[in-house]
Amino acid sequence: MLDFMDTIPVGPAVKSATEWIQDTFAFLFDPIKNQFGDFMDWTAEKLAELPPILVILLVAVLAFFITGKRIGLPIFSIVGLWFVYNQGLWEQLMQTFSLVLISSLLSVIIGVPFGILMSKSKTAETIITPILDFMQTMPAFVYLIPAVVFFGIGMVPGIFASLIFATPPTVRFTNLGIRQVSKELVEAADAFGTTGSQKLFKVELPMAKSTIMAGINQTVMLSLSMVVIASMIGAPGLGREVLSSLQRSQIGPGFVAGIGIVILAIIIDRFTQSLNKKQVN
Amino acid sequence: MPVISVKDLSKVFGKNTKEALKLLEQGKSKEEILKQTGSTVGVNRSSFDVEEGEIFVIMGLSGSGKSTLVRLLNRLIEPTEGSVLVDGENLSTMNKEDLRRVRREKMSMVFQKFALFPHRSIMENAEFGLEIQGMDKEKRSKKARESLELVGLGEYIHQYPSQLSGGMQQRVGLARALANDPEVLLMDEAFSALDPLIRKDMQDELLDLQETMKKTIIFITHDLDEALRIGDRIALMKDGSIVQIGTPEEILVNPANDYVERFVEDVDRSKVLTAEHIMKRPETINIEKHGPRVALERMKEEGLSSIYVTDGKRNLKGYVTADDASDARKNEVRDLNQILKTDVPTVSRETSMHEIFEIIHNSPVPIAVVDEGKLVGIIVRGAVIAGLVGESEVNEDHA
């Protein structure tokens, strides 16, 4: 009864579409793969070359000022980062950090403008919302496949997959933040004769800032969570340690690398949250 | 030439605006149109002129369309039909750029809930309109400071809106609007969110400012007292239509229809009522016969915290408080004179309610109504409020 027609060839269609994209946009993908890949490697290398003691101290000092001269986060940073160093995972930590840093930056650069677009246009919102739902609910592993097809293996496809997975919160929260600006304030801005961009930059974005920052915090956390998954396609860093421990059933090293990710996550999370709190006041 | 000339201005909210307009022409009511087309009439074919330098009050209850009307004047809401001429330029058909120019140079708006930008300091708020126009920093700071000083906030320029009280916030709103030096000031229920006393201060201040500024002010309010106080002319709105336009006197003396008359009645009541109408029979004790013990018991019976004291001929002597009386009883004081307080707030039978308001505001005890030295009644706060609302039965138990 249900077999009234053959399997609809969705899979093959996606496959041929992907191949078509790969061939057609090779001129685009190849330079990204090569030059952006070089840039990524360079960033990770430079970060790893910095003397660890300097990095640890720098993070601690920043933490001290960013949390309003409180002592908790600086101490945690010193102890946590030293522990990672002590376990011989410093280079991996820096690789992971550069991956998270670059992919979050890109997510924000792409996400905020889309969020603004959504907040300004009902049509854009109607179109973008289901796409965001799709991006967030599709299992993250699935993104690895086209990422590899387009960009080979390594850091670049990791960032590509992480972008798809981690950008939606920034878009959503930017949209939400701007839509939440009170109607009377928008009216006030209009009544004084603002242009669209004056209204956006002088009223809407400043008012939406804390909401947008909450979205960015989510984005950063999500891109960190992609790190382990992205290691399956050769992204270096702490995730790769976890993966290889998994493959060899070595609980010890796996656990240590996992702890390293947790430490990094806590530090990044507290940093972005404190930035947000500061701007609210 | 009028500064603002409004002609046949209508606003219909909803999808079926054309049909709704047609029905409006046929004289159908707001409800009928809503039923037939699903569209809501915000403003119904309103026309009026506002002359230079006058305070034109648009008055109506909530839902009467007054807030919509004021937003049509600077096109925060797009009109469905009709025209708004500002200095002869038709606002309702001009392009976006011209509209921005008019909003920047000719009209400023003050909002009911102040609409200050919380992320900007008081100074930066006042500068906003000038900043939008691209004026350089030094010049706009100077102007903003001047206009903040005009409203008495020169000291607060580095504070943020959340640090100020409601009254002060609205002064900032006013300063922000004045900094642009507009010809027309649109004030949308500008004082409605303020406490009654502060509201009155602000009204006085606006009138003082107007003495020197001579701006054209369009003031929206739902409060007829406010309208009568500050308006040179008043337009009364009901269901989106203007029912009557006239000076306060014209509206009071010649109400155009029953609806207007009902408002006017309310006003007369509060102006006509005097102490005699709202006082009630006083609980008293006789200083010649009674001591603190009786005073205390009487207060307990009646649930009072103070009681008036008279002599045998009802001549007012003063009052005693429950606290003093109970202290006196403990210390075995027998003579009421020792605890008698004489700083009694008194009024005569003819004192108007407006004066009573101010006296009772500062008084810890009910006001005594005195006729030739004799206590004839007392006035409690509740009675004043009841009198204002128009419950004429408050005096039923007055002796």
TrEMBL record, chain A:
The chain crosses the membrane at residues 50-66, 73-90, 96-119, 140-166, 220-239, 251-268. PROSITE patterns: ABC_TM1 (PS50928). Keywords: Amino-acid transport, Cell membrane, Membrane, Transmembrane, Transmembrane helix, Transport. GO terms for biological process: amino acid transport; choline transport; glycine betaine transport. Its main location: membrane. It is found in: Cell membrane. It is a multi-pass membrane protein. One of its GO terms (cellular component) is ATP-binding cassette (ABC) transporter complex. Pfam families: BPD_transp_1 (PF00528). GO terms for molecular function: amine transmembrane transporter activity; carnitine transmembrane transporter activity. Residues 93-272 form the ABC transmembrane type-1 domain. Belongs to the binding-protein-dependent transport system permease family. CysTW subfamily. This is Proline/glycine betaine ABC transporter permease.
TrEMBL record, chain B:
InterPro entries: AAA+_ATPase (IPR003593), ABC_osmolyte_uptake_ATP-bind (IPR051921), ABC_transporter-like_ATP-bd (IPR003439), ABC_transporter-like_CS (IPR017871), CBS_dom (IPR000644), CBS_dom_sf (IPR046342), Gly-betaine_transp_ATP-bd (IPR005892), P-loop_NTPase (IPR027417). It is found in: Cell inner membrane. It catalyses: a quaternary ammonium(out) + ATP + H2O = a quaternary ammonium(in) + ADP + phosphate + H(+). Keywords: Amino-acid transport, ATP-binding, CBS domain, Cell inner membrane, Cell membrane, Membrane, Nucleotide-binding, Transport. Its main location: membrane. Residues 21-264 form the ABC transporter domain. It comes from the Bacteria. CDD domains: ABC_Pro_Gly_Betaine. The keyword Repressor does not apply. SMART domains: AAA, CBS. One of its GO terms (biological process) is amino acid transport. It holds the Pfam family ABC_tran. One of its GO terms (cellular component) is plasma membrane. NCBIfam families: proV. Belongs to the ABC transporter superfamily. This is Quaternary amine transport ATP-binding protein. The lineage of its organism: Bacteria, Bacillati, Bacillota, Bacilli, Bacillales.
